[in-house]
Amino acid sequence: METEQSKNSYAIIALKWGLINGITSFVFTVITKYAGLVDSFEETVGWVTTIFSLILTIVILVFTLREYRNSNNDTLAYSTGLGLSTLVGAVTGIISGGFNYIYLAFIDGSSTTQQLEKMREKWEEQGLSQSQMDQAEEMSKMFMGPGVQFVSIVVISIIFFFILGLIVSGIMKREKPIFE
């Protein structure tokens, strides 16, 4: 019976924290877009948003693994922590990728056009020829579609959470005492 409860809590905890992180990530993305930070394409803004996202992800993983550990007699195996981290990454990717898909497909389809225009300006500054810009634009359009972005958000999220899970699970693990 304890194994069934442990499996349920595993999935419920992953779903809970994945939802929280997915929604938070999407809200953060929308805020940066409507604050005009995405349009500026400044390197400093990119670093700040990346560091904020990294800190948010680490905090979410710590809360996830702590909640699981507390609900399982204060034990957490490294492999369980890694699996839980990866599952949270999958849920996060599906939630934020789904919101991104809905946003791009139904709410603001012009944002990809605006991004392409900004990219074209950068290419002109770099001195690319018209044929090179057309070729680069076609390739960019292919990767900027909502469906492709959804898949890439899910895959990148899973990989990212797996890598962070390697570290955070190692720190948070607590093995069951041998003589219990």
Description of the molecule:
- The chain has 180 residues and is mostly helical.
- The protein has one domain.
- Helix content is 85%, strand content 0%.
- It is elongated.
- Beta-strand segment tally: 0
Q: How do the SSEs run, as a string of H and E?
A: HHHHHHH
Shape designation: elongated
Average pLDDT confidence is 82
Total DSSP helices: 7
Beta-strand percent range: under 5%
Uncertain spans, ≥5 residues at pLDDT below 50? none
CA-based gyration radius: 20 Å
Reported for the largest beta sheet, the result is: none
Task: Measure the end-to-end span.
Answer: 19 Å
The class by helix and strand makeup works out as mainly alpha
Helix content: over 70%
Number of domains: 1
Give a topology summary.
Layout (H helix, E strand, L loop, with lengths): L1 H33 L2 H4 L2 H28 L7 H30 L2 H17 L3 H14 L2 H27 L8
Helix pairs in contact: 1-3, 1-4, 3-7, 4-7, 5-6
Name the features.
mainly alpha; elongated; 7 helices; 180 residues
What's the quick description here?
This protein is mainly alpha-helical and 180 residues long.
